[in-house]
Amino acid sequence: MTNLKVYHLFALLSLELLANWQEVKSSQHYLLCITVVFFLRQNVAIFGYSRKTLADEDLRSMIEANLTCRVDHHENCEEKLNEFLKRTYYVDAGHDNKDGMAKLNSKMAQIEGICAANRIFYLAVPQEALLDVALPLSDSAQTKHGWNRIIIEKPFGFTSLSSQRVTQSLLSRFEEKQIYRIDHLLGKDLIENLTVLRFSNLVFEPLWSRKYIRNVQVVFSEETSAETQGRYFGNYGIIRDIVHSHILQTIALFAMEPPVSLDGEDIRDEKVKVLRSIRKVDIEDVVLGQLKDASGDVDRYTKSMTPTYFAAAMYIDNARWDGVPFLIKTGMGLMENRAEIRIQFHHVPGNIYRERFGHDIDLDTNELVLRDLPEEAILLKVNNKVPGLGLQLDASELNLLYRDRYDVEVPDSYEHLLLDVLDGDSHLFMRSDELAAAWSVLAPILHEIDQKSVAPELYDAGDKGPINAYYLAAKHGVRWDDGC
């Protein structure tokens, strides 16, 4: 039953969020891995695992308090919730993960009985605790009568070297196809639509190159201040947290060559080629910002000068994109929540209508905007004649607003990605070679920052961010949209 399957995905999401909530509310690490055991399509069990002393009913109460009912048009919710909670169990790991994983395996085997089963392990743990959980898991909790998959949360390492060591340790115990590095921002419809829009529409595919595209802008901003991220964000910063995975993966999906098929490995083969083709970023083409707190000082969680804002100009040195600037901009504590990809096309050569736009030549530039926030939309900016006498031109947008076109509830990005894990679809998850290629792009920048050669520009909460981002864009012939 499809509805039952989706309902369990929602429960998985709630459990993962509970793990994060506990991490924020408690000073001690709350280690939670979620295991999904499949016998048949309808037979699923969820196991919570941590060092906290809880009973099955305690975990079920936590889930019930956070789980929303969104199946069968909100019908029979109580019945479905009760049925689901019966399938939820808790294992107290104690203080030794080796013994804890053995207990978890025993509990799962008890529930599975003699049936073959597949297991998914969601490791919602801090990076420094990842191997302490993953390695005992590999030895003591994997099923021998089905497949095993593990989900790992970003950020994926603190440095290139630490990431490489973690990867080597994981690959010594798991196969590459078992590892799913999850970034919930990649589960947005905006990301999935990148390849759909391009590869399934003849009108766009011929335009996707330096011949027609003047620049590409990738913007991701949040109103939420870094303060709400706590010690976690202060340690990793926006480059490791957002740019390393979300921004670079967005660029890779946007710029890749057509894959052989929609198979996850074929898509990841093309993505890694893009990442390896990104030119070394000049530190002069980087703008760093840091959010002020309410008193006008540096935010208290980022006294170490960890950036909360990052803008840069990147270039992809291959035949398709040679010379096209990819301008990226991401920050926290800004004036609005915004996530979009803006493609600006070249001016029409010898445009005989140029004078009809006045002195601003950029007014006659066609643009394609793929937007997730503030509302999902696809916008195409075209030039047309203003109705009436005379010949006056205007730049207008052809809008596809999802809320007007589709009367459906958009699933959360975690739900999308968890379903992909269940189906074995890996195309939105970073492979180990992609991870290394992304680090090769950012490691020189991080090295410069760590050497204190680049000082972040302070900006106020609710502002547009550092003014130097606008000078950076102008340097590369780009004008940011008026948003933040």
Automatic annotation (TrEMBL):
It comes from the Eukaryota. Residues 1-26 form the signal peptide. InterPro entries: G6P_DH, G6P_DH_C, G6P_DH_NAD-bd, NAD(P)-bd_dom_sf. Its EC number is 1.1.1.49. The keyword Transcription does not apply. Residues 39-193 form the Glucose-6-phosphate dehydrogenase NAD-binding domain. Pathway: Carbohydrate degradation; pentose phosphate pathway; D-ribulose 5-phosphate from D-glucose 6-phosphate (oxidative stage): step 1/3. The keyword Lyase does not apply. GO terms for biological process: glucose metabolic process; pentose-phosphate shunt. Residues 196-480 form the Glucose-6-phosphate dehydrogenase C-terminal domain. Pfam families: G6PD_C (PF02781), G6PD_N (PF00479). It catalyses: D-glucose 6-phosphate + NADP(+) = 6-phospho-D-glucono-1,5-lactone + NADPH + H(+). One of its GO terms (molecular function) is glucose-6-phosphate dehydrogenase activity. Keywords: Carbohydrate metabolism, Glucose metabolism, NADP, Oxidoreductase, Signal. Gene3D superfamilies: Dihydrodipicolinate Reductase, domain 2 (3.30.360.10), NAD(P)-binding Rossmann-like Domain (3.40.50.720). Belongs to the glucose-6-phosphate dehydrogenase family. Catalyzes the rate-limiting step of the oxidative pentose-phosphate pathway, which represents a route for the dissimilation of carbohydrates besides glycolysis. This is Glucose-6-phosphate 1-dehydrogenase. It comes from Aegilops tauschii subsp. strangulata.
